[in-house]
TrEMBL record:
Residues 17-131 form the Hemerythrin-like domain. Gene3D superfamilies: nmb1532 protein domain like. It comes from Noviherbaspirillum aridicola. It comes from the Bacteria. This is Hemerythrin-like domain-containing protein. InterPro entries: Hemerythrin-like.
Length: 166
């Protein structure tokens, strides 16, 4: 596929789907920096809400499309990543049960952040280079990821509309 079809900053790079994951990783790092570099509880809560939403959609994309599509490159590493996702999902579920303004939430959130940053480093430094060396045609996977991401965005927009009506 011609990469010129993907020139917009927000378009999904279907022929280079790892770039979309890297973009999410960078967004997480930027939001974590905002979270950690403020004394304002409100700024922390806002950054945390954005991070949690991004982690949820990113995880669904990786678990639903990316990992199944690249499992053959290194099945053991993908199993490891899925286990890390499961542990993080459990912490995220715990966070959803309490208010982000609860002091306990900050502790759990820090654990989520540390686990996520560790996971990002493993993906970027260990798995993505292996994936690049595998020389796979990533376009079919990129198209699936693009469709999955668009579907998630549609579902979130519907949920937001329903929430606004209440």
């Amino acid at each position: 596929m011609d990469s010129t079809m993907n020139e917009g900053n927000n378009s999904f790079p279907v022929d280079r789907p790892v770039e979309a994951l890297l973009r999410d990783h960078q967004m997480v790092r930027t939001l974590v920096e905002s979270y950690r570099n403020t004394d304002s509880d409100q700024v922390k809560i806002n950054a945390a809400e954005q991070i949690l939403m991004l982690l949820e959609t990113h995880s669904l994309l990786e678990e639903g499309v990316f990992y199944p599509g690249v499992r053959d490159v290194n099945p053991e590493m993908i199993d490891h990543f899925e286990q890390e996702h499961q542990k993080t999902d459990e912490m995220l579920a715990e966070l959803k049960r309490i208010s982000l303004s609860d002091p306990q939430a900050f502790t759990i959130f820090e654990q989520v952040v540390e686990a996520t940053l560790h996971h990002i480093e493993e993906e970027e430094n260990e798995f993505f280079p292996q994936l690049e060396q595998a020389n796979m045609d990533m376009t079919p996977l990129g198209l699936q990821m693009q469709a999955h991401e668009a579907n998630l965005a549609h579902i979130q927009a519907q949920a937001n509309q329903q929430g606004a009506r209440r």
